[in-house]
Design brief:
288 residues, alpha/beta, Rossmann fold, 2 domains, eight-stranded mixed sheet, binds nicotinamide-adenine-dinucleotide
Length: 288
């Protein structure tokens, strides 16, 4: 498996992280983005991940050189997916965009390629209906930051075949992750549970129950969460969280996933968290 070509579509937060772990694991990585500035920002972030990996003693300078050399970047999706064994889509959380991207991927990738989406919440079955061979479409949900988070949630669409799930499991293991297999339901296992905590923490900020920092400290020290729910929202991206919340609200109903006003307001103001310098905290330090 190692040495195969992995195409990654979207060089944002997640595309960068997946490119990093796949290249360190020995895969040839071809990454593409529709926006030239996002592609160059993504490549800068990948280089900085390698420097971080060396600083933490996770990779040697030789590994750094060879792994970075295995990554190519492309301005068109067609160039990236050509010859790919696995294609991983990591474009924004929008069904229309995902379906269009999958149709383009199928047109350019080998007929044997595994077609995976990194969606946090959207239905794999619906994404897969955009292609002629839905049996090779699967959810491959990585977590942020990809190099540190050990889980990959594999989502089995209604028509996903057993060999596809097995290839997804093998790939997750090859990049050093533990995987779980989840039926295609809104928010899968992880987002469905994790988003509840984040949204409730935001409602608590709105109701002045405590400061964002104290709410996060409550969950870190009282519940042993490595990161509090509001800081995690900043790391994920408030726009990403809002899209997921809106989707879960529309599909699961009730009030649990109704997006709090503070989330909608911050997104409208362009305060998307770490990636724009401000969300519930101010970045790069992550201070409140
Ligand atoms: N951010 C997280 O913590 C996180 C965690 C798990 C899963 N996800 C999921 O991963 C996916 C990507 O999220 P992200 O946070 O990396 O988003 P992002 O906004 O950081 O990056 C998305 C990238 O896709 C590019 N793009 C947009 N349209 C494109 C197209 N047609 N072709 C190629 N590239 C295109 C954008 O220019 C951007 O660089 C989403 O489905 C999201 O729900 C995100």
């Amino acid at each position: 498996m190692s040495g195969e070509r992995i195409a990654i579509i979207g060089a944002g937060t997640m595309g960068q992280g997946i490119a990093y772990v796949a290249s360190v694991a020995g895969f040839e990585v071809a990454i593409a983005d529709a926006a030239p500035e996002s592609l160059s920002r993504g490549m800068d972030a990948i280089r900085s991940s390698f420097r971080g990996g060396m600083d933490r003693g996770k990779i040697s300078p030789e590994q750094h050189e060879s792994a970075l050399g295995r990554i190519t970047h492309h301005s068109t999706l067609g160039d990236a997916v050509r010859g790919a064994a696995i294609v991983i889509e990591a474009v924004p959380e929008d069904m229309v965009l995902k379906r269009a991207t999958f149709a383009a991927i199928e047109a350019g990738a080998p007929a044997t390629a595994l077609l995976a989406s990194n969606t946090s919440s959207l239905a794999i079955t619906e994404i897969a209906s955009a292609v002629q061979s839905p049996e090779r479409v699967v959810g491959l949900h990585f977590f942020n930051p990809v190099h540190a988070m050990k889980l990959v949630e594999i989502v089995r669409g209604r028509l996903t075949s057993d060999p596809t799930v097995q290839r997804a499991q093998a790939f997750a293991a090859a990049v050093g992750k533990t995987s779980i297999v989840v039926r295609d339901t809104p928010g899968f296992a992880t987002s469905r549970l994790g988003v509840v905590l984040g949204l409730e923490a935001m409602r608590m900020v709105e109701q002045a129950v405590a400061s964002a920092e104290d709410i996060d400290t409550a969950m870190r020290l009282g519940y042993n969460h490595p990161v509090g729910p509001l800081k995690l929202t900043d790391l994920v991206g408030l726009d990403v969280r809002l899209a997921v919340a809106d989707h879960l609200h529309a599909t699961l109903g009730g009030d649990t996933y109704r997006a709090p006003d503070v989330l909608r307001r911050l997104v409208a103001e362009g305060k998307l968290g770490k990636k724009t310098g401000e969300g519930f905290y101010r970045w790069p330090e992550g201070e409140s």
